[in-house]
Amino acid sequence: MSLKDLMKSINKRYGDSCFVQASNSEKLNTRKRIETGIMSFDLALGGGVPLGTIITLKGEFSSGKSALAHRIGASFQRTCRNCGNPMVIWNEALQDGAKVQCCDDPQPMRVVWFDAEGSYQNSWASRLGMDSDNTYVIRTEFAEQGIDVADAVIRSGECDLLVVDSVAALTPSVEIEESSEKWQVGVHARLMNKAMRKWVSAQNAVGMAKVVPPTILLINQIRMKIGVMYGNPETSPGGKGLDFAASVICKVKRKGYVEDKSGSAPFGQDMEVTVLKNKTAPPNRSCLFSLYFRDKGSYVAGASNIAEQLVAVAEYWGFIEKGGAWFTLPDGSKYQGAVKTAEALISDEGLMFDIKDKIWANEVSWMSGDED
């Protein structure tokens, strides 16, 4: 029996696209990605969130992990689940966009939020761009129930993004049923290793045959090892299996708050995201951006400082020239300071999109190995 005949026999037995030739598979040639709108974060990931993978966001408390997960969920809901193309031309600064016809049957992607912490709230999620009509929430008494529910949802093919908030809050049933005086060693790690095996199997069951394969986003916390004298004392709950299962691991850190000169309450925060692992693009990249959590003047809740990110990256690639404190845009206009330059870009949407397209072209060329 030839290999091609064997492929037909295996696919007939186990389902289409179970056994394929790599060069003939469109899904293996190009991995679909979804842009979050936070340009520096998308660039660090290699062009956006890779579909069909497991992604981990971990960091300290109040570092912005859940807020970033909400933004990722919102970007999924602006994308069609039938063709994988954007349904909206998005304006990040205004948190608004114009709808476009992506295919004959446009349907927004569905986000399932595994709310182990019990902190999900519609009003806060909508402020960060999420649509409650296409969001479904799982809350269970103990972790095993939720893991089985999430497994069934992924296998159904009706879930496009599963967000687990958070891994550290998933409580094994044995910890609930037994007394708090009794210590159980490694129960959480064994449970999460099993969850990874089940969920990866569920992804594989629907991933090759589906236009948009399901993606899993894990939110995790930071713990400190006891008695560590040398090396990094930081670790995260759930065991090492989580890090091996994830295709992308991001560490999220808050760098400071965004305040105005009046000294009022902060309306945003500066964030640094470091991509510690990336099996879909060049790894070990980092990015800086600001995320606003309430309206303040020209700043919109849920938006990032997209124009300032553009100025920084465009200066690196040479599309914007800097001399002292002055920035020269491609059209020849000059502005003093990055903030004034960013304001000028926001007012000229055409120029902003033109610079963004040039940056993307250079980034794609760089990731493909072009030294120039």
Write a brief structural summary:
The chain is an alpha/beta fold and 372 residues long. 34% of the residues lie in helices and 22% in strands.
Describe the structure.
The longest helix is centred in the middle third of the chain and has 21 residues, at 187-207. The chain is globular and about 65 Å long. Helices cover 34% and strands 22% of the residues. Strands 7-6-8-9-3-12-13-14 form an eight-stranded mixed sheet, sandwiched between helices. Strands 15-16-17 form a three-stranded antiparallel sheet, with helices on one face. It has a two-stranded antiparallel ribbon with strand order 1-2. The protein is α/β, with parallel strands linked by helices and 372 residues long. The protein is built from twelve helices and 17 strands. β16 (326-328) and β17 (334-336) form a beta hairpin. The model has no long low-confidence stretch (mean pLDDT 93).
List the helices and strands and how they pair.
Layout lengths: L2 H12 L11 H4 L3 E2 L4 H7 L3 E2 L3 E6 L5 H13 L10 E4 L4 E4 L11 E5 L6 H6 L7 E4 L4 H14 L4 E5 L7 H5 L9 H21 L7 E7 L1 E2 L9 E2 L5 H5 L2 E11 L9 E11 L7 E7 L13 H12 L3 E3 L2 E3 L5 E3 L1 H10 L1 H19 L5
Parallel strand pairs: 3-9, 3-12, 6-7, 6-8, 8-9
Antiparallel strand pairs: 1-2, 4-5, 10-11, 12-13, 13-14, 15-16, 16-17
Helix pairs in contact: 6-8, 10-11, 10-12
